[in-house]
Amino acid sequence: QVNLLQSGAALVKPGASVKLSCKASGYTFTDYYIHWVKQSHGKSLEWIGYINPNSGYTNYNEKFKSKATLTVDKSTNTAYMELSRLTSEDSATYYCTREYPYYFDYWGQGVMVTVSS
Amino acid sequence: DIQMTQSPASLSASLEEIVTITCQASQDIGNYLSWYQQKLGKSPQLLIHSATSLADGVPSRFSGSRSGTQYSLKINRLQVEDTGIYYCLQHYSAPLTFGSGTKLEIK
């Protein structure tokens, strides 16, 4: 069965970076794009961008271009998102999700990032 | 960017009632529209894809429809477990955009 397992919650200081992971299992990792989605507390969902695990090609929401960097490690079937220069505005829950063409069929459990000194 | 205007923001309905949630796209997005349910503290879960196709394992009381650039999610015979927040998503062009969400409560 398909599963996306995300890393645990993170507490990070303002100005620092954090790298979130999303380990895929139950399917061929390189066959499906991985997207990342942000959900601020009590708010709607924002699309950050996606990565093609086969080629490494990325496509970012302009809003997150200087904030997020998406990568993959094909040897471990893991997708990563690094968030840099963190501020309180980056405190949120982040989801990875698999794209079956043109919709998201599986989601990770989400990881809460808290930015605080 | 394509705007997805979702309504209503919240909804309270009785068991067995029929409810409808809508998303209005700011431009043509074809059938590149999906619906998700998010329960408290959980990840979103796919309900409907391609505007009208029911996702695997989703009860048949959920249905999606399209009229031009307006998309609707209909829930027949509302059940207690349908409580949650519902989101639409357009997957027509980047940046992908979600609706603002509809919070559904059972009276």
Write the layout of secondary structure elements.
The complex is a heterodimer of chains A (117) and B (107).
Chain A (H helix, E strand, L loop, with lengths): L2 E4 L3 E3 L5 E8 L7 E7 L5 E7 L6 E3 L7 E6 L4 E6 L8 E9 L2 E5 L3 E5 L2
Parallel strand pairs in A: 2-11
Antiparallel strand pairs in A: 1-3, 3-8, 4-5, 4-9, 5-6, 7-8, 9-10, 9-11
Chain B lengths: L3 E4 L2 E4 L5 E7 L7 E6 L5 E6 L3 E2 L7 E6 L2 E6 L8 E7 L6 E2 L3 E5 L1
Parallel strand pairs in B: 2-11
Antiparallel strand pairs in B: 1-3, 3-8, 4-5, 4-9, 5-6, 7-8, 9-10, 9-11
Note the total helix count of chain A. Answer: 0
Q: What's the Cα radius of gyration of chain B?
A: 13 Å
Estimate percent helicity of chain B. Answer: under 10%
The interface involving the most residues is between: A-B, 20 and 21 residues
Please provide the ordered H/E string of secondary-structure elements of chain B.
EEEEEEEEEEE
How far from one another are the termini of chain B?
Answer: 37 Å
Largest sheet of chain A: 7 strands, mixed
Principal-axis shape of chain A equals globular
Taking Cα atoms only, what radius of gyration of chain A do you get, to the nearest Å? 13 Å
User: Structural class per helix/strand content of chain A?
Assistant: mainly beta
Helix amount of chain A: under 10%
Proportion in β-strands of chain B: over 45%
Characterize the largest beta sheet of chain B: strand count, sense, and whether it forms a barrel.
7 strands, mixed
